[in-house]
Amino acid sequence: MTTQVWHLRQSHTRIIWTCLAFWLLLNLLFTEKARSQSFGGDMKNTASSLEPHSGERIATDRSIGSIEPVFRFFDAMPTGITVAQDGRIFINFPRWGDDVPFTVGVVQDGKVVAYPDQTMNTFDPTRPAETLASVQSVVVDPANRLWILDTAAPKFSTPLAGAAKLVGVDLATNKVVKSIVLPPTTVLPTTYLNDVRFDLREGKGGIAYITDSSANGPGGIIVVDLETGESWRKLSGHKSTTADLSFVPIVEGDRLAMREKGKSPVAMTIASDGIAISSDGRTLYYCPLSSRHLYSVPTKLLLNRSGSEQEIAASVVDLGEKGASDGLESDDKGRIYAGDFEHNSIRQMQTNGEWKTIVHDPRVLWPDTLSVAADGYLYFTANQFERQPQFNEGRDLREKPYMLFRVKIDAGPVLLK
């Protein structure tokens, strides 16, 4: 073979291999393009699809219900709310650490003022039964009295001697008409008085039911005879009034726990908190804050002061999960309401036991107290409980204002009189 022919063959071979490589490259490119188009387009199209387009709407969590802002709080953090038949709105501010010049107030002329007066709201250790230490709940009863539940435990301390009490104010005169100091047999060193409901048909002067939401002792239901002032505990330390130790609350996307910088988180264990009474007065509903379960018990067993704990414990009904709740409430149509602080929601238990979400809104940051008013609305506070410093390594993440909202429910309050 001549040198010229050999070089010619070598040249043809290189051309063939070059063409083959080019064909393979084109085939690979077309294959990748077809594959990307089958998944919604090539890289350029995919990137451009992320750019905002006119009229484009990306799916988000949907809201439920139409809530109305009623009042904005720019000072201390509120918990309790109740609405009188004349429309007056009463609020309480527990002394947990904020500057609280008065622990009970009424909305008046666009602002909150001390109620019934500033003197009573200025705690005097020498007059613990006559002045207010730290109020957790306010409730208007069927007789048009405002009942004030004084925990006597500022900053969640051991209750101050002689200061834990239930105070009744006549809303017609704005004067105190009843003050019941709760004894050490009822208010234990670990007790935290949380919320209260009334049945004025029982006994000579009516009965109050109070939850003990202790964070480091037994929870329970406290029963108070409004005529005699006597009180007694029921279901003290029972499973239904005790924090669920397996409960892991997730609020605003994170686990809610007591957090100190440099230390491991500590679980929040709060006992029986929310409370509601049925429209016929026969059943009391309640729940630990550190739980998702709702419980009920016949009120006749709570009223039997000498009844056995075994009998009442056997009568407790676990009604299943309702969401994680702070406050509970009931209406005159036989329905029960529960906040759901993990989902910025309020839920309504129908008379058939089914739950329906009536509010789901990102503005509902920790629905605390719920209160049905005569105007057909459910009022509730949203106070950002989870953003307090003790849950955030000392950082106060609350953003004022705290809010009072309401939602239409076309029902009235339970009036047992």
Brief characterization of the structure:
The chain is about 15% helix and about 35% strand.
Instruction: State the fourth-level CATH superfamily.
Output: TolB, C-terminal domain
By CATH, the topology is Neuraminidase
Indicate the percent of residues in helices: 10-25%
Strand order of the largest sheet: 1-28-27-26
What's the pLDDT, averaged over the residues?
Answer: 92
Straight-line distance between termini: 122 Å
Largest sheet: 4 strands, antiparallel
Radius of gyration: 31 Å
CATH-defined architecture: 6 Propeller
3D structure, described in words:
With 417 residues, this protein is α+β, with helices and mostly antiparallel strands. It has one domain: TolB, C-terminal domain (Neuraminidase). It has helices spanning 3-38, 43-49, 118-121, 299-303, 309-315; strands at residues 68-73, 81-83, 89-92, 104-108, 111-114, 135-140, 145-150, 165-170, 175-181, 193-199, 207-212, 220-225, 231-234, 250-251, 254-255, 257-258, 266-267, 272-277, 283-288, 293-298, 317-321, 328-330, 336-340, 345-349, 355-360, 367-372, 377-382, 402-408. It has a four-stranded antiparallel sheet, with no helix packed on it. Strands 2-3-4-5 form a four-stranded antiparallel sheet, with no helix packed on it. A hairpin with a 5-residue loop joins strand 18 (272-277) and strand 19 (283-288). It is globular and about 110 Å long. Residues 36-48 have low confidence and may be disordered.
